[in-house]
Structure formats: structure tokens, C-alpha cells
């Protein structure tokens, strides 16, 4: 729960030791080896985009970070080894994962979904009591980011639109007060306008809470708009890394590896 | 290199050896009734009778991936069909077989159509309810079924030309029926319908995409398996000469499933082993206590599901393949929830190859379990 | 006695037995929601719990003290079974899990026979004899007692699930275990809790029905079939449906036995079979189930 209080973390990002470091990360499903040894790092407080064509291993990378798939190699978060942990253990270390397809609890109400997000903070019977006020305040904060969720707080999550469900999923992840927020294809199946709104909120969250964010996206243009840094994957290997501005401007490279011209990307 | 040569050598040696094994098995099967005492021959006959029912159940559970907890009821239906025909119409034994088979097939269709439109679990519920309902129904239909007293009918008698004793003749009849049933089960699985069935078991949605009509094939599999149970019940009546509602309580259904699981799901020879279990374990364990057969069966089922989901037959196959090549570790199965299904981003192709059935099922055309293990020469 | 009072009399009896079915059906639905399977051993677990209660009472404990002890033992037993028997096959195909519960059914049944023998035992009737007269309809204290106990259990479950954080976590796990895990919930513990709860609710049905049926290892076999019908009728994913389904099946059974001559007392056990088949043909998701029934 100890957020870094150092001012202008963004400016110091280059000098500060990396918050998350992956080295020689391998992962896959059964016989299918998807990640073939990734090395990358993410600085504290930055938004990092992971880009690449279909099947490059973007989703698998996120799943290896949060413990949904078993990885080999090493991934450290603030010096702590992440690999070999279950998703619930990863959550305890402050990793909040918003899975592809959102993973909302459809039969629960919006507010119940958000409260589940704060489960780890309230589960402890003694400390939970003290946390309760803080959780209530966080609920208000989330509703501040996503006013639509407040309107629908008593509705079943399953009755929300796709965009609202994605907001709810992100809201639930934030209720954990994560130090690392993983977003898997947040734009999937959403209208361009809704996606744009969502990304603006992610940017706001990152700026206000200083939460480190790793976002996996097909829509490179959108992701690069809010990212500080980007890693491009292809066939389970890292092919390009750098500040988001550089990657955006390097149109040719992007075209080769991302399969689309970032300048004509959807949205906007 | 040497392994390749060895493999080639065993492949070449395989056919004659398999033929030899088959010949040996036939010799043992034919010789048995002349070697054993009449009571033991009777027990072997019952093993063969149960094996027919289990072969049918295996079509459904082992290959179709569905559960029936009411096969004892189809067994009873077949048994009563034979008994009533013999008792009231004096039709002769042979005529009862096709009627019992057809009747149970239709009964299976009747229950399968509603039960198999949906998830497999409903078939288990429907069949169990049927198994519980049948005994009181048989008691009620007293004018036809003889009520609680049951019916006593003539056993199968050996024809004069054979020169065989009653127990020997019945053994050979049961052997013939069992052999035909096992061969039929094998051919059913190799037919178009059988391959569709396996496809359904291994990946239902993929099979559906490929145009396999799920509910039709599942229902047909169920009807076929009911037919096998009916035939088995019919031969039971020929052998025992007596039927009563209490012989066919739902415990029989549970015991049949237990026998099959222990003998080996999805193996062609599992039913034979399972039938031996159904026949011998209760009679041995009963000496200890009334409850002992249940304790043994219950524990065995759970243990088998934990360590060898393909039962005894599969275990032999697995041990053999373990010895032959490097062990294939079963990868941890993915969670059942959509989020953790394999990455759509990366491995949607690999998903369809993961069978949702007990790991490492014995190949459909596995060798007889009784066959001596092939030795690999290095 | 007029035909109307007689009908009402039968309905009251039906509600009494329906409450027992509802309780076991609720246990089945709980397991189905948490584990995704039908637990064929549910009735046998209730039977074992009833033997525990019997043993306690036989050793001199008062019934109303033995009941909470029995429920606590059942809760622990249910958790233990999840951990030891179900967890190892949790990621296996549904078929494997269901077969394991069938194995458990056989094993538990036989163990009860081994420990307590197969001879029937008289289970003490916890409620006083006699009853009250409501406009000519006689309601036994025992019937009222059964209905009251089941109602209290339902009420407690409702409070647990809707108004406590543990209940919220349990609903979240039942709804989406993978997401629950991502929120830091220890799903394994919650599943143990679910099985413990189900065993407790099932135990209530066993203890309530035992004075009427006589206690023996096969006591719950018949009740289980009715509970299946109740859960199918109400919808396998709906706790409310289980209760309503249980009451309906209980009333249907009593009325069929009393008014349909062909059925009579001996063929009443056909009622669940007909119920299940009818529901599957007409409304397969059940009265309260979600429209989209899984096709697995």
C-alpha cells in the first residue's frame, strides 16, 4: 500500500532502478511454447504498452506476470520474484490483472464487483475493520473516474454494456490499490469512442495514482498515445523496445512489426 | 538408432505374435469349461454375461463421455423380456434375444432424446431415477411379471448332439454372445458413427463445428448401450432361469458402472476385466462383511480415477508405453473458466487438441490385456 | 371431511416432505454452483451425518444439543471431502469428477453399514406428538417443525450469501473462479467452505427425515432421487429454485399417491422420473434457471 512519494517519478524514470524486470522469460501452454525468452523492464509509475501482431505472445506475457500461466526465467517486481506464484499470491503482491474478456462477476452487482476487488484489504478480520473507511473512499474515487458505474451500482454486472463492463473490470482492479495494473486488450469489442474514453481514464489513473500500467493492445495507435514506453513482440520474441514517441514516429518499423500503419490507426 | 531398429523389428514381429496371442486366448476360452468344476464354469459364464452389459456401458461412458446410472434397469428390462416371453408365450429361448435387444434399444432412445439434448449430467439423473423406479413397477405388474415372487423359467438346455453338460453349453452360448458383442462394439467404434462419437468426447464444440450432430450421436450411443445391456439381461435369464425385482435394484446399476470404471474406461477389454470384478469381488468380500464389497468398490473407483483414469486395462497399456518410451507427463489442465482458456492471442490451435477425457486413454485397438508384454530389444 | 379439507391435508403433508427434499436439493445446488457437478454422494453424506446424530443421542446427549454438534461435524466433513477427494480431480473432466462422487456414494454407504450395520435404527422424533387443527386440516407438530427448521436454514443461508462479506466472496467464486483468483481470493478455501455448507444443509435433511423413514444406510437413496427432481425442476443453478422445486415435488408426490389410483403408495417414486423428463422436455433450464443452459 506504500505508493512512492518521490515527486516527478516520470522524470526520474531513467535513473531509478526498474520497477519490473523480466529476464529470459519463457511461457506456454502444454506443448505450445509461446514466449521464447523475453527481456524487458518497466519503470515505476510508467505506462508500458506491449504491442505486436496476433499470436505474438502479448496475452501470454501478462498471464505469466500474474501467475495465470507458469513461466520460466525471472520476473522481479520491486525486487520480489513474481514467477512461480499463483494468481492469488500475485494479487497479494499488488499485481492487478484485468483479463481479456473482462472477467466481471456477472451475477453480482456493480458495487459487489468493486467490493470483491478490495477483498484482500478487508479480508483480514482485524485490519479489515480499519480498512473499511478507506475502501468506502476508494469506491467513491472509482465512481469519480467512472460516473456511469455509480448510476448502475445496484445492477447486475451482466446487464452492463461491453464498455461499462470493461470500466467495471478496471475499477475492480483499482480497488486492490495495485502497484502494477495489467490490462489485456481493453479495447476488444468496444466502439472507438468508448475505447478512447477508456484510455483517457487509464491515463488519468496513471497520472493521479502513479500506478504502473502494462497494457496489451492490438490498437497500437491508441496504446502509444497513453504509453511512455513500448515493447513490440513477434512470435514470442522482443523485436523492438523504446520510448513510445520514438516507436510512434518510426512509422516504417511499426508498419513492419505491427502490421498496420500507426498513423492511420482507428480511433481519434 | 538402435531404438529405431528395435521398433521396426517389433513392428514386424507384431502381427504373428498378435495372431498367436489371439489363438492362445481362444484355446483358453474354449478349454476352460472342460477344465473347471461346474460352479466355476457358471461363474465364468456370469462374467461373460456381465461383460456384454459392460461393453455397452463402455460405449456410452468410455467412448461417449456420458454417464448412465441405470444400466441395471436395461439389464432388468432384457431379463424380464426373456422371462415373460418364455413364461407366457413359450417362444423358445432364441426368439427372446432379438426382442430384448430391440426393446431396450427403443427404451434407450426414449430416455436419450430428452436427457441428451442438454448436458450429460441429466442422463445420469434420468437413468438413476429409472433404475429406482423399475423394481416397484415390476412388482406392480404382477399379472405379467409375477410381482415380488418373480418368474421361474426353463434354463437353456444343451441340444443332444453337443454332448455337453448344461453349464458347459450355457458357457459356450454366453461366450458366443460376448464375443459377438465385443466385436460389434469394436466395429461400432470404427464406423463413421463411432468416430463421430470419439470426436464428440474429445472436443464437443470442435466436433459440432465439423458438423457432427451431437445429440443424435449421443442418443444413438445410449440406445446401443441399452441394447447391449438388454441382451446381457436376456442371456442372464437363460442362465439363471429366475428373475425377481429385487435382483435388479439400483445397486446393480451402480455396481455395473463401478465394474466398468475399475476394469477400464474406453478400453475394448476393460469390460471383461470389469465383469470379473462385478462377479468375483462381491462374493469374496462378502465373506468379510456385507459392507465390504461396497468399501472395496467405492475406494477402488476413487483410487482408479486419481491414478489411472483408464482403469486396469489402461494401466497395463500405460505401463507398457512407459517402459517403451519416455513418460509423457500430463500437463496441468487449464481452468474451466473462459478467461483462462488458452490464449486466443497465441495458441487457439493447440486448444482443440486437448481431450477433455481421462488422460491418456488406451488406444481403441489396444492389444488384449492378457497378452504377454512385448519385450523391447535394444 | 370435505374434499377440499382433504386436499389441503394432502398439500400440508406434501409441503412437509417437500421441505426435506428442498433441503437436500439445496445442498446439490450449492455443490453444482461451486464445483459444476452433480454430487451423487450428497444423500449418503447426509445419511452419515444422521448416524452421527443418532450416535450422539444414543450416548445420552439431548437431541437439541446433538443437532448443532452434528452440523458442525458435517461441515468439517464436507470441507475435508472437498480437500481430499474432490480437489485432486478438480481440473479433470466432468466425467471423472462425477464418477468420483459415485465412488464416494458407494464407499460412504458401505462404511455406514460397516460401522452401524444394515439393521434399521429408531431415530428419536425431536418434535412433540400431536398437532394443531387449522379449519379442519390437521398439522402435526413434526410437520411444522420440519418446515420451521428448513425455513430457518434457508434464512440463515440467505443472510450469509447476501449480507456478509464471506457470502459475497463465495458468490464471486461460484460466478467466476478465475477472476476471483485474480482478486486475491483463495478459491480452494472457498470451495472447501462451499462443500462444508452443502454437507451441513444436507445433514439437516437427513436428521429431519430419519424419524419418518427409520435410519439405515440406504435411507437417503430415495430422498436423493426426489432432490434431483427438485433441483432439475427449480434449475440446478438456483438456490431459490431448489426450495420451490422441493416443495412442488413433495406436494406432487403426495397428491399423486393419494388421488391417482394407478400410482398409489408404491409407485410414487415414479414422480421424480416423470418430473425430470417433463422438465427436460418443456423447460430444460428449470423454473428459476438461467435461460442459457450450458451445453457441455
From TrEMBL, chain A:
GO biological process, one term: L-amino acid transport
Residues covered by the ABC transporter domain: 20-260
Keywords from the named record: Amino-acid transport, ATP-binding, Nucleotide-binding, Transport
MF term (GO), any: ATP hydrolysis activity
PANTHER family: HIGH-AFFINITY BRANCHED-CHAIN AMINO ACID TRANSPORT ATP-BINDING PROTEIN LIVF
Keyword ATP-binding: yes
InterPro entries, per the entry: AAA+_ATPase (IPR003593), ABC_transporter-like_ATP-bd (IPR003439), ABC_transporter-like_CS (IPR017871), BCAA_Transport_ATP-bd_LivF (IPR052156), P-loop_NTPase (IPR027417)
Name of protein: ABC transporter ATP-binding protein
Coiled coil: none
Stated family: Belongs to the ABC transporter superfamily.
Domain of life: Bacteria
SUPFAM superfamilies in the cross-refs: P-loop containing nucleoside triphosphate hydrolases
TrEMBL record, chain B:
Region (Disordered): 326-378
Keyword Metal-binding: no
Coiled-coil intervals, chain numbering: none
InterPro entries, per database record: ABC_transp_permease, LivM-like
Intracellular or extracellular location(s): Cell membrane
A GO cellular component entry from the record: plasma membrane
Keywords associated with the record: Cell membrane, Membrane, Transmembrane, Transmembrane helix
Highest rank taxon of the organism: Bacteria
Biased composition, class Low complexity, residue ranges: 329-354, 362-378
Bilayer-crossing regions: 41-61, 68-86, 92-113, 120-138, 169-189, 220-241, 247-263, 291-316
Entry-linked PANTHER family: HIGH-AFFINITY BRANCHED-CHAIN AMINO ACID TRANSPORT SYSTEM PERMEASE, HIGH-AFFINITY BRANCHED-CHAIN AMINO ACID TRANSPORT SYSTEM PERMEASE PROTEIN LIVM
Protein name (Swiss-Prot/TrEMBL): Branched-chain amino acid ABC transporter permease
Taxonomic source organism: Streptomyces cupreus
Amino acid at each position: 500500500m506504500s505508493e512512492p512519494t518521490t515527486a516527478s517519478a516520470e522524470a526520474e524514470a531513467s535513473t531509478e532502478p526498474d520497477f519490473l524486470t523480466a529476464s529470459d522469460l519463457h511461457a506456454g501452454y502444454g506443448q505450445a511454447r509461446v514466449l521464447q525468452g523475453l527481456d524487458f523492464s518497466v519503470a515505476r509509475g510508467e505506462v508500458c504498452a506491449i504491442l505486436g501482431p496476433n499470436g505474438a505472445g502479448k496475452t501470454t506475457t501478462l498471464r505469466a506476470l500474474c501467475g495465470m500461466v507458469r513461466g520460466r526465467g525471472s520476473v522481479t517486481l520491486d525486487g520480489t520474484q513474481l514467477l512461480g506464484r499463483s494468481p492469488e499470491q500475485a494479487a497479494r503482491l499488488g499485481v492487478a490483472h484485468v483479463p481479456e474478456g473482462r472477467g466481471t462477476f456477472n451475477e453480482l452487482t456493480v458495487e459487489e464487483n468493486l467490493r470483491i476487488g478490495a477483498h484482500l484489504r478487508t479480508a483480514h478480520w482485524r485490519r479489515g475493520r480499519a480498512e473499511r473507511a478507506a475502501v468506502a473512499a476508494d469506491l467513491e474515487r472509482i465512481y469519480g473516474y467512472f460516473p456511469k458505474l455509480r448510476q448502475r451500482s445496484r445492477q447486475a454486472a451482466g446487464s452492463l454494456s461491453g464498455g461499462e463492463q470493461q470500466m467495471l473490470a478496471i475499477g475492480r482492479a483499482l480497488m486492490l490499490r495495485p502497484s502494477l495494473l495489467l490490462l489485456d486488450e481493453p479495447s476488444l469489442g468496444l466502439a472507438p469512442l468508448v475505447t478512447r474514453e477508456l484510455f483517457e481514464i487509464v491515463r488519468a489513473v496513471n497520472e493521479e495514482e502513479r500506478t504502473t500500467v502494462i497494457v496489451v493492445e492490438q490498437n497500437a495507435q491508441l496504446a502509444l498515445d497513453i504509453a511512455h514506453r513500448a515493447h513490440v513482440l513477434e512470435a514470442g520474441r522482443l523485436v523492438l523496445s523504446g520510448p513510445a514517441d520514438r516507436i510512434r514516429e518510426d512509422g516504417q518499423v511499426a508498419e513492419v512489426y505491427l502490421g498496420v500503419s500507426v498513423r492511420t490507426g482507428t480511433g481519434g | 538408432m538402435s531404438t529405431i531398429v528395435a521398433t521396426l523389428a517389433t513392428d514386424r514381429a507384431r502381427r504373428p505374435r498378435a495372431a498367436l496371442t489371439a489363438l492362445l486366448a481362444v484355446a483358453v476360452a474354449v478349454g476352460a469349461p472342460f477344465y473347471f468344476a461346474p460352479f466355476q464354469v457358471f461363474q465364468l459364464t456370469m462374467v461373460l454375461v456381465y461383460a456384454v452389459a459392460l461393453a455397452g456401458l463402455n460405449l456410452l461412458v468410455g467412448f461417449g463421455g456420458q454417464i448412465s446410472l441405470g444400466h441395471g434397469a436395461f439389464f432388468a428390462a432384457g431379463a424380464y423380456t426373456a422371462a415373460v416371453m418364455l413364461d407366457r408365450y413359450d417362444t423358445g429361448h432364441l426368439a427372446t434375444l432379438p426382442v430384448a435387444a430391440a426393446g431396450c434399444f427403443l427404451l434407450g432412445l426414449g430416455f436419450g432424446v430428452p436427457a441428451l439434448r442438454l448436458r450429460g449430467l441429466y442422463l445420469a439423473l434420468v437413468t438413476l431415477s429409472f433404475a429406482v423406479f423399475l423394481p416397484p413397477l415390476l412388482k406392480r405388474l404382477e399379472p405379467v411379471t409375477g410381482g415380488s415372487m418373480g418368474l421361474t423359467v426353463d434354463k437353456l438346455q444343451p441340444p443332444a448332439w453337443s454332448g455337453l453338460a448344461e453349464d458347459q453349453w450355457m458357457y459356450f452360448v454366453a461366450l458366443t454372445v460376448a464375443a459377438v458383442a465385443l466385436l460389434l462394439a469394436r466395429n461400432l467404434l470404427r464406423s463413421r458413427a463411432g468416430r463421430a462419437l470419439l470426436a464428440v468426447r474429445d472436443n464437443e464444440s470442435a466436433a459440432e463445428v465439423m458438423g457432427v450432430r451431437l445429440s443424435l450421436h449421443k442418443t444413438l450411443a445410449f440406445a446401443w448401450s441399452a441394447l447391449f445391456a438388454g441382451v446381457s439381461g436376456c442371456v442372464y435369464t437363460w442362465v439363471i432361469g429366475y428373475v425377481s425385482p429385487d435382483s435388479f435394484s439400483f445397486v446393480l446399476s451402480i455396481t455395473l458402472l463401478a465394474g466398468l470404471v475399475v476394469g477400464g474406461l474406453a478400453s475394448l477389454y476393460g469390460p471383461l476385466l470389469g465383469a470379473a470384478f462385478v462377479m468375483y469381488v462381491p462374493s469374496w468380500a462378502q465373506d468379510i462383511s456385507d459392507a465390504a464389497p461396497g468399501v472395496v468398490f467405492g475406494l477402488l473407483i476413487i483410487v482408479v480415477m486419481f491414478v489411472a483414469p483408464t482403469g486396469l486395462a489402461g494401466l497395463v497399456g500405460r505401463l507398457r508405453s512407459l517402459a517403451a518410451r519416455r513418460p509423457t507427463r500430463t500437463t496441468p489442465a487449464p481452468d474451466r473458466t473462459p478467461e483462462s482458456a488458452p490464449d486466443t492471442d497465441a495458441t487457439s490451435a493447440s486448444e482443440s487438441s486437448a481431450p477433455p477425457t481421462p488422460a491418456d486413454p488406451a488406444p481403441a485397438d489396444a492389444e488384449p490385456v492378457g497378452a504377454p508384454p512385448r519385450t523391447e530389444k535394444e | 371431511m370435505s374434499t377440499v379439507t382433504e386436499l389441503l391435508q394432502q398439500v400440508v403433508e406434501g409441503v412437509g416432505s417437500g421441505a426435506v427434499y428442498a433441503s437436500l436439493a439445496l445442498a446439490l445446488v450449492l455443490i453444482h454452483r461451486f464445483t459444476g457437478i452433480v454430487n451423487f454422494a450428497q444423500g449418503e453424506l447426509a445419511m452419515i451425518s444422521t448416524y452421527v446424530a443418532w450416535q450422539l443421542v444414543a450416548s445420552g446427549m439431548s437431541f437439541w444439543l446433538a443437532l448443532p454438534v452434528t452440523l458442525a461435524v458435517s461441515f468439517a466433513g464436507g470441507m475435508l471431502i472437498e480437500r481430499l477427494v474432490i480437489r485432486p480431480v478438480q481440473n479433470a473432466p466432468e466425467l471423472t469428477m462425477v464418477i468420483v462422487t459415485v465412488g464416494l456414494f458407494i464407499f460412504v454407504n458401505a462404511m455406514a453399514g460397516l460401522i452401524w450395520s444394515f439393521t434399521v435404527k429408531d431415530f428419536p422424533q425431536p418434535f412433540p406428538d400431536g398437532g394443531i387443527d387449522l379449519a379442519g386440516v390437521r398439522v402435526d407438530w413434526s410437520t411444522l417443525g420440519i418446515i420451521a427448521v428448513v425455513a430457518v436454514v434457508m434464512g440463515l443461508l440467505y443472510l450469509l450469501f447476501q449480507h456478509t462479506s464471506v457470502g459475497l466472496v463465495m458468490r464471486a467464486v461460484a460466478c467466476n473462479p478465475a477472476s476471483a483468483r485474480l482478486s486475491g481470493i483463495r478459491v480452494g478455501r472457498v470451495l472447501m467452505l462451499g462443500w462444508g455448507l452443502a454437507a451441513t444443509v444436507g445433514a439437516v435433511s437427513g436428521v429431519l427425515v430419519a424419524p419418518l423413514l427409520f435410519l439405515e444406510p440406504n435411507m437417503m437413496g430415495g430422498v436423493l432421487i426426489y432432490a434431483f427432481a427438485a433441483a432439475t425442476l427449480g434449475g440446478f443453478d438456483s438456490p431459490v429454485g431448489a426450495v420451490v422445486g422441493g416443495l412442488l415435488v413433495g406436494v406432487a408426490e403426495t397428491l399423486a399417491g393419494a388421488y391417482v389410483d394407478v400410482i398409489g403408495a408404491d409407485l410414487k417414486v415414479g414422480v421424480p422420473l416423470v418430473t425430470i423428463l417433463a422438465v427436460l422436455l418443456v423447460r430444460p433450464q428449470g423454473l428459476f434457471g438461467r435461460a442459457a443452459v450450458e451445453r457441455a
